[in-house]
Structure formats: structure tokens, C-alpha cells
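Example with several molecule types.
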Amino acid sequence: MRKAQETVFEIIEGADENGSRWSRYFDILIVSLISISILQVILESFQHIHALYEWQFRILEVFIVIVFTIEYLLRLWAARLKYPERGPITSRLFFIFSAYGLIDLFAILPFYLPFFLAVDLRFIRILRVMRLLRVFKLNRYLKAFRIVGAVIMDKRSELSITIFVTFLLLLLSSTVMYYLEGDVQPDSFPNIISTFWWAIATLTTVGYGDVVPVTGWGRFISGIIALLGIGLVALPTGIISAAFVEALEEEKGKKKKARPKLPEDGYRYCPYCGRPMEEH
Amino acid sequence: MRKAQETVFEIIEGADENGSRWSRYFDILIVSLISISILQVILESFQHIHALYEWQFRILEVFIVIVFTIEYLLRLWAARLKYPERGPITSRLFFIFSAYGLIDLFAILPFYLPFFLAVDLRFIRILRVMRLLRVFKLNRYLKAFRIVGAVIMDKRSELSITIFVTFLLLLLSSTVMYYLEGDVQPDSFPNIISTFWWAIATLTTVGYGDVVPVTGWGRFISGIIALLGIGLVALPTGIISAAFVEALEEEKGKKKKARPKLPEDGYRYCPYCGRPMEEH
Amino acid sequence: MRKAQETVFEIIEGADENGSRWSRYFDILIVSLISISILQVILESFQHIHALYEWQFRILEVFIVIVFTIEYLLRLWAARLKYPERGPITSRLFFIFSAYGLIDLFAILPFYLPFFLAVDLRFIRILRVMRLLRVFKLNRYLKAFRIVGAVIMDKRSELSITIFVTFLLLLLSSTVMYYLEGDVQPDSFPNIISTFWWAIATLTTVGYGDVVPVTGWGRFISGIIALLGIGLVALPTGIISAAFVEALEEEKGKKKKARPKLPEDGYRYCPYCGRPMEEH
Amino acid sequence: MRKAQETVFEIIEGADENGSRWSRYFDILIVSLISISILQVILESFQHIHALYEWQFRILEVFIVIVFTIEYLLRLWAARLKYPERGPITSRLFFIFSAYGLIDLFAILPFYLPFFLAVDLRFIRILRVMRLLRVFKLNRYLKAFRIVGAVIMDKRSELSITIFVTFLLLLLSSTVMYYLEGDVQPDSFPNIISTFWWAIATLTTVGYGDVVPVTGWGRFISGIIALLGIGLVALPTGIISAAFVEALEEEKGKKKKARPKLPEDGYRYCPYCGRPMEEH
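Resulting C-alpha cells for the full complex:
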């Protein structure tokens, strides 16, 4: 059984350049099924296509979910080989709660849930697109991904402030706006929560134009918020720019080939005349 | 009395990790009241909820204001312990005009003002959300807050220029636009001040679309302003980015542990004449 | 006469901290007249105010122009003292074509031109706001102004590319869009020049929404242009950010107090043992 | 014939500062024809002008295409002198598939294609504007072009991530939005592909306002996407800013004239043991 486990593990995980032929076939199958599934979600949203091919779509979905379920169970079974230092149960729990494990679970869950709960989660199927992350393995972009991720993580407290200030601005401006425009346009500004819609559209400079102040003071506040919206763009951009500059410099610092540096605690001998420094 | 003052001070200020149990209870009470108060402001904006629970809301508001007023008076009373180097009156004035003191005052003022003035300042109650700043103390984000604040303060004259140029652009483009579109669309561009509404929406790239030029020249100017709007985003972003880069480098410079460099306090021998430096 | 010229020069130019009392009075007069003039332009745009106070506005305008004209002639007369190294005529030409001289001319020209040409240039009066630049002298913000200006000038060729690419994108997308939407919406996309209106609104992400594609391909192209619009913001912002970083570093480099640097062409004597380097 | 080829090559390629008089005349001719052609494309889009001067436009177009075709054939003929190290055929293929060669081909192709295919490619004529790139040679902006291009190329993997994440966001938000708004506004959100129109307009903060969510959850998701749109601007801007900072520093590093540093090629005496480095 250990042997079978190893074979399965090699097929489902070893799709790298040194993967076997079967492993490559397996990957092609999974990528095809993901692509077909995404296409199906998109096509089903066209009412007439959905009506025309309803039962074909149903069969396709059942087939895809069966394959993905088998794949998920195989991965669960072979998880011990992925985390060899763990026990038989902890290794499986590690897989289930790993990022990829959860994505795999979300890819099949929307199918099974309606049997137990009366919810329509079909649109979660679109998350299957994230399964491509695993199959493509993205070896090429991984470093770039890591840099971008590290930059955002490194500055998370500064970026949190931006989010906090944004939320504060949204709350304050929505309240003020509700009191200024609520009486004149009760349909557009019926309460503070609904006024958030205007506040976000203004602060992010989206400006749909479906909810627009008409009073003088309302327009004044709106103008202030729109101008502050520029600061809202400038702040995180500045933070992220500086973080990228820092990341690039650190990387460059590491790259510099290790040439004999100045000894940190002073020379013992003069590098010019060769005599002990004490004699100098 | 000094003893009571100290106990009160410890309860209302010492909510840090080393705070007493009563201090923690006090903080939980204040945070709860702030949250309830914010929720009340939002809920009151829903007309039917307001109509349904009008007197309950009124009682709640009176209760919250009483607690906040007592808290404010206690803080005022214990201010001497916060500014121990000041006298009994200056320490209280220091508290009243400190940032937190003013926020605390604004949190209760909207309730008392209507007794003296015929104004409806209820919406100022939303500023109570800023009281959370004190209670959470935000130890964790404080450094990030300080960096962001320092960056903005450090570049305030460069940023002022952006604001000055923005105002100039708004004034010039509004005047030009009024002369171009005022005759064709007297409702949308009735005067220069009203045309500011169009100018801000264009320069900040919000673009609601409720006021839009229709003449050829009007659209030409509008296009120029929209393109300049990109510069308006680029300029402060560039300034802030550079300031963050600078701030990060300075911080890094400080971190570097002081390793023995080439003698900063002068060489032992002059590299030019070869004589001991003392002889110079 | 030389004496009178000097007195006049001191009054109109010497408004700095060491200026005389009359010079300060003169400045207050000019700032007041500029402010009144700007206010007048804005107020005149309100139709009912204009109708009500028509001849008062006219008298005020004549008075302001007379004062400004006298001031201009005095500055012209005293120009020799501003450019002492120049001759009597070249110094005056220098003043006329200096930035401030042109602003001063534009401030009075709109009044005199209608006597010769049948044009309404009254809105140019708003440019008088730029005269404030001189009077406030802006000593405080001058350095920041110079940095911002130097940064933009330094990167003008890189920024020109952004403008060139922007123009190319506007031309190409307008042409394509005209062929895609022109038949379906002949009112919104009547010709390529009019389609520029849509192109600018999309590329700058203003998005008024008065001209919007409705065909599938039109929306596809519009989406591409909108996404490219983000690049259009990112490019100049990146250029300006880097330029500010550079400017700040150069400035910091200059500030570093001149400590004895490593001699550039090698030591003559070993700084440790004091013997000539040749002996090493 | 070799002589003729050289003369032709000098005329069509040698428009630099050291170009002959004929070469300059040739350049003026080509620039004029390009400008006229662009103008013609724009003017033809005005229906009444097109109707009025239909056959004049046709003749002009035939004339321009003839000149451009002759020019293209001459360049093809003289390609051997441009790539002297290549053979007679490979040098021509090199020209045909060079960036400039393709632009030149696209400038005449739209005229000939309709004889073979029933397609209207007249709008491709606008690409002739790109021919100006060659004629202006842009020696002045070339360095800036190269820097901008190098910066974008250098960070292409980081920028690809932004594009990938953007696409993922568009797909996910469109799917969610279709399920939220599809039933309420079947005209605005008929299927997932059409919902992309809303998603792009929101994520890029264009916000035309022709397609706007009306349900509470739809507006909530829309707000989230709009706020994420700010991140979408901040990320590429940050990447590009850092790349420009890096490019400027590298350039500055090169400029610094090589001054004798602490010996990079090893000390003469080991600073630790004091023996000559050769003995190590």
C-alpha cells in the first residue's frame, strides 16, 4: 500500500520538469477540467444557453465534481508523503487546512452542500480558477509573487492606517452628507448606511453619478472628500513605492559578491605596511 | 483627596497591560458606550426605526452623555497627575486643549449646546468614533501612525504647493468654463462658484457626469483639466513616496550597529604630510 | 530724478521684512485690489448681482485698472534699479518679458484690448490671482517650489514620452472607437475629433458617462483603454517619485558636514604609521 | 547599381544632422504625406466633409499609397546596406520583420487588402502616425524612451502579477455580481461576460454610471471592488517607482569617476596575520 501511495503521490504532485509521463497526463486532465468548469459557469450565465443545454451542463458538472472529489481524496490519502515528518492524522489535517487544500475543498463543496442546506452556492464554482495556481505551479512568477507579498506584509501596519482613516472618512462624510442631503433627496440619501454608497464612489473617485449631492453644502463636502480621495491614493502608493525601493536595495545588497570586507573590530595588522596595529 | 485622585487617574488612564481590573472594566464600559452611540446615530438615520424607538433613543443618549460628562469631569479633575510638572490650573487647561481633551469635549457638547443655541449639531455625535483612538491606545499602530504623520509633516510645504496649484487650477478653469458654457447651459454653469463643482469632479477624475460640458471648447478645456488631474495625483504621490523612502532609510541608518569605521575623529597621522595629527 | 526712482523702487519692491512703512502700505493696497478684483469677477458671474450693480462694478474695474497701470508704468520706470547691470532700454525689456512683468501686463491688458479689437477677454482678469505670487513673495515656499519645479524640469523628456504615448493612445483609440460605435450612436461618436471626448474621459478614468460605448467590441476597447489609463497614472507618478527621491538624496549629500574625506587620488602618507605610501 | 543603392540609402536613411540636402527634402515629403494622411482619416470621419470631397480624398489616398509603396520598395531594395553583415535575402527579411518595417507595411496594407479580401481596414491607416517615430528619429528622447522601456521590461514579472490579479478580480467580482444583480437588472447584468463591463468601470475607477448596482449586497461588493481599485493603482505605481529609483541610481553609479578605493583586489598585507597576501 505504501508503494501505491508513492505512485499516486508522484502522479498528483510531481508535475514539475522531472515529473513522469502519467503525472503530466494527470495535470493536463485537471487543467482541462478547470477550464471547462470556468467556461461552463460563464456560459450558464447566458439564459438561452442555459435553457438549451440544461441537462448536459448538469452531467458535465457531476462528472467534474466526481473527478475533483477523487483527486481530493487521493491527495488526502497521500498527504503523509507531503508532510513526512507528521503523523498519519496530523499530516491529513495539515493538508485540509493548507491554502491549496482549502481551495481544493471549495472547488467541490458547492456541489455537496445543497444536499444538506437549502443554499445556492453555485457561483462559488468560479473559485476553481484559483486551482490553476497549483497546477501551473507558477515557478516562474513565484519570486515576483513573493516580493509583492513580502512588501505588502512588511508595510501592513502602515497600510492598515490607510484603511482605518478611509473607514473613518467614510463614516464621518456619510453622516454629514445624510444630514445635508437627506431631506432634499430622501431617495438617494435615505440613511447613513445607504450614504456609504455615495461616500465610496466619491472617495475612490469612481463617481458613478447615480447618487449626487444637489445642495450647495453637500457639493462642498463632496468636493472636499473627492480631493481627500487623491490623498487616499497617494498614501498607500507612497508606502508601497518605498517598500519596493527597500526590497530592491536589500536584494541588491545580498547579491553583491562577498569581497573581503573591512574587519568589523579593527585590523590586527596594517594592510599597507604589515606591522601589528599596536605598533602604529 | 490626593489618594482619591490617584485612584481615579489609575482607573481612567491605566488601561495598559499593567492596568488594574477596575481600569479594564472602565475601558470596556467606555468602548461599549461609544459603539452603542455610533450605532444609535446610524440607526436614527433610518426614519422608521427613529419613529419607532424615539424616546428609547432619547433616554439612551441622555444616559451616555451623563456617563461621558462624569468621565470628562473626572479627567479634568485628575489632569494634575497627567501633567505633574504644571500647576493646578495650567494642567487643566493643558488637558482641555489637548487633542484628546477636545475630542472628549466634542463628544458631549452637541447635547448641551441646543440649550443655549438654536442649532442642531446632533450629527457631531459621530465624532465620538474618534474617542476610540484613546481607548484602544493603538500601541501597536502608534509607530506606523508616527511615520505616516512625520512624512506628511516633513513635506508639508511641498504638499502645500500641490494644494495651492490645485486651487489656482480650480479657479482658472471654473472662470474659463463659466464663460464657455454659461450661456449654453445656464442651469449647470450658472456662476463661477457653481462651476467649481464641475472643476473638482473633473480634476479629481471623479466625473459624476451630472454637469458635463457640451460645447467644443468646453470639452477641450475639460479634457485638458482631466489630463492635468493625472499630474495632480502624480505630484503628491511622488512627494509622499520620496518622503517614505527617506524615512525608511533614516530608520535603517539608525539601526546599523556602530561598527568601527575609518577614524571619524581624525587620523592618527596626516595622510598628506605624514606628521602626527596632534602636531597640526 | 535718480533719487525719486530709488524711492519708488524701494516702495514697490522692498516689501520684505526690511521694507519701509510705505512699502508695506503699498503691498496692502495691491493685495486688497487683487482680492477685490477676483471677488468682482466671481460676483459678476452671478447674473442678478451683475444686473443690480452693473455701473458700480464698471467704476471699480476702471479704478483698479488705473492703479495697476500706474503701478506697471512705475515698475517699468524703475526697472533699471532691478537690473542695474543693464542699459536703460534693455533693463525695461527685461522687465516686460520677465515672468512677473508678463503677469502684470495680463492683469491690465483685458481692459485696453477691447478698444482696439472686438474681443471679450474679461475672463483673463482672473489671471490677476497670479499677481499674488509676487506680493506674497512666498519666501517660505520658494525652496519647495524650486524643488518641485526642478524635479519636473529634470524629467521633462521622460514625462514628454508619457504625453506623447497618451496622445498616440487617444488618437488610435478614438479612430477605432469611431469605426466601432459611429454607426450605432452617431450622436455620441459623430467623428474622430468628437470621439476624443470619450477617449480622454476613459483614459483619465474621469468617466462622466455622457458618452458610453454600447456595442460589445466598443466596450472591449473601452475596457482596454481604461486599464491602460492606470498605466498612464503609474508612469508619470513613478518618474516623479524617483526624481523626488533623487532630489532629496542630493540635498542630503550636500548637507553632510564636510568631514575630511578619503583623498581621491590616494594617500601620500599612511594614516596609521605616518610613513610615505611609496615606502609601503 | 551598388552606387545607386548607396545614393538611395543615403537619401532615405541619412536624415540625421549630417544628412545631405536631398535626404532632408525626402524627410519633409514623408512627414508632410503622413500628416496629410492622418488629417484625411480624421476629416473623412466628418460625414458631410466625406460626402463633399469623396473623390478628392480617394485620389489623395491613391497618391499617398503610391509614394509610400515606392518608398517601401526602395527601403527593401537598400536593406542590404542597413544590415551589411547579412546576405541579400536575409537582410530583406530582417527589414520586413523589423519594428519599423512592419509599421511601414501596415501603412500601405489597408489599401491593397480590400482587392483580395472583403474587409474594411481603412481605420488602420491611423497607424501611419507611428511612421513619424522613424522620421523624427527622436534622437533626443531616445535615452528617455530606453529608460522607460527598460524599467517596464525589468519589472515585467511583477507587473504581470498585477495583471493576473486584476483578471482574477474581474472574473470573481463579475460572477458574484451577476448572481446578485442579474435577477433585478437583467438588462444591465445579463450574463457574466457583460458584467465585465461594470467590473472594469469600477476597478479602474472610471465609473461611467451606465451600469450601476441597485441591491444592497451589489453595492457592498461594488464598494469593495472600488476600494481594491485603489490598490490596483498603488501596486504598479509602486513597482514602477522603485524601478525608476533603481535605474537612476545605477546610472549615477556608472557616472561616478573611478577613484582609488580601498584595494578591491586584495590588501598587500593580511590585516589579520600581517604577512604579505601573496604568501597566503
